[in-house]
Amino acid sequence: MDIDQLRYPIGLFQSQESYSAAEVKSNIQIISALPSKFINLLGSWEDDRLNTPYRPDGWTVRQLVHHVADSHINAYTRCRLALTEDNPVIKPYEEQLWAELPDAKTAQIDLSIQLMRYVHLRWVLLLNSMDEKDLARTYTHPATGRVFRLDEVIANYAWHSEHHYQHAFQLAARNNWR
Predict the structure, then answer these.
(1) pTM above the 0.90 mark?
(2) What is the pLDDT of residues 134-160, one digit of tens each?
């Protein structure tokens, strides 16, 4: 398997001009399902598996799970900002550096899975309450100046959810851990 397939097991995120109500609903369901999918896949994994990188020079599964929790907390906050402010400029963070912090390298994944579980409950409740006008609200990323619509943000984080789940899932498949 080549490195690009290991890095992007479901391909790169493909943004669209707009998203139908059915697409938004499907994307919210993908986000909603992620904590349970991680629990089902990783729930019985011991440290040796959790400390295995999902690809050469990649994060360990432990770092990956902590990254997803960190990322989705930020996404939830960004959605709330976009719904309550006029095109706010969000606060970026250095995800690679966050993944190198001691808690991301050593903490039990249950901490982040449970954090993700409860953040996702709140986030999905918020996302499901949004109407067409809300989905068109935006925020700006200061590093690029790019404006993101919330319907695109939802699609991106549905992709992000499956992207990182597949990192762990495919590692398990390659090593006969399923």
Answers:
(1) yes
(2) 999 999 999 999 999 999 999 999 999
Interval 61-70 mean pLDDT: 98
pLDDT of residue 55: 96
User: Above 80 in pLDDT, residue 31?
Assistant: yes
pLDDT of residue 178: 79
Tell me the C-alpha distance between 82 and 65, whole Å. Answer: 26
Q: Where are the domains of the chain?
A: 20-174
DSSP labels, the chain: --HHHHH-TT------S---HHHHHHHHHHHHHHHHHHHHHHTT--HHHHTSBSSTTS-BHHHHHHHHHHHHHHHHHHHHHHHHSSSPBP----HHHHTTSHHHHHS-HHHHHHHHHHHHHHHHHHHHH--HHHHT-EEE-TTT--EEEHHHHHHHHHHHHHHHHHHHHHHHHHTT--
As a CATH number, domain 20-174 is: 1.20.120.450
Report the chain's C-alpha Rg in angstroms.
16
Lookup: tokens for 100 = 């190198």
Whether the pLDDT of residue 1 is over 80: the answer is no
